[in-house]
C-alpha cells in the first residue's frame, strides 16, 4: 500500500502509530472478552442455581410419591387381619384355603408391580406363596429367616435383593428371579403383641423406576435410593442393589447431614438429596448431575462466541492497522519535512496529505514555510549581502525566538487536532529554548531549574522510549532558593551520555533537595545506570577536591585546562563564583549500580545570594 512509510515501517512503542493500534485493539477486544467471561460465568452459575432448585422440587415430589407407595403397601398388608381368626385357629378345609388365597391375591393386586406375597402361619407351620397370582404351599417348615428378622418394628422394608421362594424348596420355581424390595409385617394377635404369623410382599423395582424415571435424565444423570444404612435400594446398576454406597461425597455430605434435604457440588457433580420417612423405613433419594452436562450448552455458546471473536479480531486488526497507518503516515511525512527544514533546506516541496485534519495541518505548514521564505527573501536577503556580521549577531537571538514561536504554533495545531503527545513534547522543547534564550537571567531559583530539568526529561523520555523514570523530592521552602542558571541540567545529562544502557528498561533518575541539620542545603542527583570505573572515579574525586588547579582561571574550561569533566567543572566553577568557596560538588558510585552527584551550599551562602 502506498500510504505505508517504507523508511520507518518499524513500529516502536513510543510512536503514535503503535499506541493507536494497541489502544484500538484493547478498546475493542477487552470489552468483548470481559463480556464473554462475565456472561459465561453468570450463565453457568445461574444454571447451577436453577438446577439445584429444580432438583430439590423434583426430589421432594418424588419423595412424596415413594412415601405414598410405601403407605399403600402398608395399608394393603394390613388387610391380612381380615383372616386373623383363621390364622389363630388353624384351618384345613377348602373354604378357608380359598379365603386365604383370595386375601393374598387381593394384596398382590392392590399395588402395581407386586411380584409375590408370602404368608407364614405359626400355629399350623404352613407357608403360602402367591407369585404372580399363582399359589404354592408347604407344610411343617420354619418361617423364612428374612421375614422373622431382628427389627423391633412390626412393619419394615428390606433393601433390594433378588427374589426367592421363601424356603419352599420342594416346589419347582415357575418364574425367574426378579430384583425386588420387600415389605415385611409381623402379624400379631390383637390386642396382644403375640406373633401369629408373618407376611412379606415382594415388589418389583419397576414400581420405584416408574417414580424415579420422571426425576432424572438417563445416560446423563444418576439417581439412587439408599436405606438408613447406606445400602442401595434402587439404582441403574443392578449389580449394586443391596450393596453399600462407598462414595466419599455420600459419607461426608449426606450421611452426616442432619437436614432432611439439601444440595452441594463436589468432584465436578451437583448432588441433591431428599430424605423419606415412612413407617419404620428411612430412605434417602439422591440425584447426581454432572456439571459438564449442565455447562454443555454454555460451552457450545462460548465456543461459537470465540469463533465469532476470532473472525472479528482478524477484521478489527486489519481495519485498525489500515486506519492507524493512514493517520500516522502523514505525520511521519511531516516529521521528515521538519528534519529537512531543520538541516537548512527551506525550499522543501511539501505535498498535501488528504482532506482531513492532518491534511489541513500539512497545508498550513506549507503556507507557513512559504510565508517564511517570502519574508526571508523580501526582508533579509539584501541586508544579508551588506551586513553579514550584524545579521549573524541578530540571528543568534532571532532564530531561537522565531523557532520558539513556531513550535508554539505547531503545538497549538497539534492540540487542536487532538495529538496531545506532540503538543507536550513541543511545549517541553519550547520551555527549554525560552529558558536558555534569556541571557540576562544569570541567576534563577531552584523552581526554575527544576522546571527546566523536567522539560529536558520529557524530551529524553521520548528519545529513549520511556525506558527510565524520573522522580524528585524538594522541600517546599527550598523552591525559592537562588542559584546559577543551568546548574542541574548538565548533571542530569551525564546519565544519558554515560550511564543509561541502551538495552535497559528500568532506568531511574532521582533528584532530592533538603535542608541539612548543620545548616545549608544539599541537592542530590542519582541514577541506577552504569558505574564509573573505579580508577576513573578516584581520579575524578581527586581532581574535584583539588579544584581549581594553581594558576587556572575559575571559568577556564578550554582545551588547556585539566578538568575532570567540562560539564562538572563548569557547574562547580559557577556555583563557587555564585555562592563562595564553601560550595562543593562530590561524585560517587552507588551499589549495586548507579552514580550519585551531590551539591552542597552553605546556609550563609544562601543568605548572601538572597541579599545580592
UniProtKB/TrEMBL annotation:
Its main location: membrane. It is an enzyme of class 2 (transferase). One of its GO terms (molecular function) is protein histidine kinase activity. It is a multi-pass membrane protein. It is found in: Cell membrane. Its EC number is 2.7.13.3. The keyword Transmembrane applies. The keyword Kinase applies. Residues 325-377 form the HAMP domain. It comes from the Bacteria. Keywords: ATP-binding, Cell membrane, Kinase, Membrane, Nucleotide-binding, Phosphoprotein, Transferase, Transmembrane, Transmembrane helix, Two-component regulatory system. The chain crosses the membrane at residues 20-42, 302-328. This is Sensor histidine kinase. It comes from Paenibacillus terreus. The lineage of its organism: Bacteria, Bacillati, Bacillota, Bacilli, Bacillales.
Amino acid at each position: 500500500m502506498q500510504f505505508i512509510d517504507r523508511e520507518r515501517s518499524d513500529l516502536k512503542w513510543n510512536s503514535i502509530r503503535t499506541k493507536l493500534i494497541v489502544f484500538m485493539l484493547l478498546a475493542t477486544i477487552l470489552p468483548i472478552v470481559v463480556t464473554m467471561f462475565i456472561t459465561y460465568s453468570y450463565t453457568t452459575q445461574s444454571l447451577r442455581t436453577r438446577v439445584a432448585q429444580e432438583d430439590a422440587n423434583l426430589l421432594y415430589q418424588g419423595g412424596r410419591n415413594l412415601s405414598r407407595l410405601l403407605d399403600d403397601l402398608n395399608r394393603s398388608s394390613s388387610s391380612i387381619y381380615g383372616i386373623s381368626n383363621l390364622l389363630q385357629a388353624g384351618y384345613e378345609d377348602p373354604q378357608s384355603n380359598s379365603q386365604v388365597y383370595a386375601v393374598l391375591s387381593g394384596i398382590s393386586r392392590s399395588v402395581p408391580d407386586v411380584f409375590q406375597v408370602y404368608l407364614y402361619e405359626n400355629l399350623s407351620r404352613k407357608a403360602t406363596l402367591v407369585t404372580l397370582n399363582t399359589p404354592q404351599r408347604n407344610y411343617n417348615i420354619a418361617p423364612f429367616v428374612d421375614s422373622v428378622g431382628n427389627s423391633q418394628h412390626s412393619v419394615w422394608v428390606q433393601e433390594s435383593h433378588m427374589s426367592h421362594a421363601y424356603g419352599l424348596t420342594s416346589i419347582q420355581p415357575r418364574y425367574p428371579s426378579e430384583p425386588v424390595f420387600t415389605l415385611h409385617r409381623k402379624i400379631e394377635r390383637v390386642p396382644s403383641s403375640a406373633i401369629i404369623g408373618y407376611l412379606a410382599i415382594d415388589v418389583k423395582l419397576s414400581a420405584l423406576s416408574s417414580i424415579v424415571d420422571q426425576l432424572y435424565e438417563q445416560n446423563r444423570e444418576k439417581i439412587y435410593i439408599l436405606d438408613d444404612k447406606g445400602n442401595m435400594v434402587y439404582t441403574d446398576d443392578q449389580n449394586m442393589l443391596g450393596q453399600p454406597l462407598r462414595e466419599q461425597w455420600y459419607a461426608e455430605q449426606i450421611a452426616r447431614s442432619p437436614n432432611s434435604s439439601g444440595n452441594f457440588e463436589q468432584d465436578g457433580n451437583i448432588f441433591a438429596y431428599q430424605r423419606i420417612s415412612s413407617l419404620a423405613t428411612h430412605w434417602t433419594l439422591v440425584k447426581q448431575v454432572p456439571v459438564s452436562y449442565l455447562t454443555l450448552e454454555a460451552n457450545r455458546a462460548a465456543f461459537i462466541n470465540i469463533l465469532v471473536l476470532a473472525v472479528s479480531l482478524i477484521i478489527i486488526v486489519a481495519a485498525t492497522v489500515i486506519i492507524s497507518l493512514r493517520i500516522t503516515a502523514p505525520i511521519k511525512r511531516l516529521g521528515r519535512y521538519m528534519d529537512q527544514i531543520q538541516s537548512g533546506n527551506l525550499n522543501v516541496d511539501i505535498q498535501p496529505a488528504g482532506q482531513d485534519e492532518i491534511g489541513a495541518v500539512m497545508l498550513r505548514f506549507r503556507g507557513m514555510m512559504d510565508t517564511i521564505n517570502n519574508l526571508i527573501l523580501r526582508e533579509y536577503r539584501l541586508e544579508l549581502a551588506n551586513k553579514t556580521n550584524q545579521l549573524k549577531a541578530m540571528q543568534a537571538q532571532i532564530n531561537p525566538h522565531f523557532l520558539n514561536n513556531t513550535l508554539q504554533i505547531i503545538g497549538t495545531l497539534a492540540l487542536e487536532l487532538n495529538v496531545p503527545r506532540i503538543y507536550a513534547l513541543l511545549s517541553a522543547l519550547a520551555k527549554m529554548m525560552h529558558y536558555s534564550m534569556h541571557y540576562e537571567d544569570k541567576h534563577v531559583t531552584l523552581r526554575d531549574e527544576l522546571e527546566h530539568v523536567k522539560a529536558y526529561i520529557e524530551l529524553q523520555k521520548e528519545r529513549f522510549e520511556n525506558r527510565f523514570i524520573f522522580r524528585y523530592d524538594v522541600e517546599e521552602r527550598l523552591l525559592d532558593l537562588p542559584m546559577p542558571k543551568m546548574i542541574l541540567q548538565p548533571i542530569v545529562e551525564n546519565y544519558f551520555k554515560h550511564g543509561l544502557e541502551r538495552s535497559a528498561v528500568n532506568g531511574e533518575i532521582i533528584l532530592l533537595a533538603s535542608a541539612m541539620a548543620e545548616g545549608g542545603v544539599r541537592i542530590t542527583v542519582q541514577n541506577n545506570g552504569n558505574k564509573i570505573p573505579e580508577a576513573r572515579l578516584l581520579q575524578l574525586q581527586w581532581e574535584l577536591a583539588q579544584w581549581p588547579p594553581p594558576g587556572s582561571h575559575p571559568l577556564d574550561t578550554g582545551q588547556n585546562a585539566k578538568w575532570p569533566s567540562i560539564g562538572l567543572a563548569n557547574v562547580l566553577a559557577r556555583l563557587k563564583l555564585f555562592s563562595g568557596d564553601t560550595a562543593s560538588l562530590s561524585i560517587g558510585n552507588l551499589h549495586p549500580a548507579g552514580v550519585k552527584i551531590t551539591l552542597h551550599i552553605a546556609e550563609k551562602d544562601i543568605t548572601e545570594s538572597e541579599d545580592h
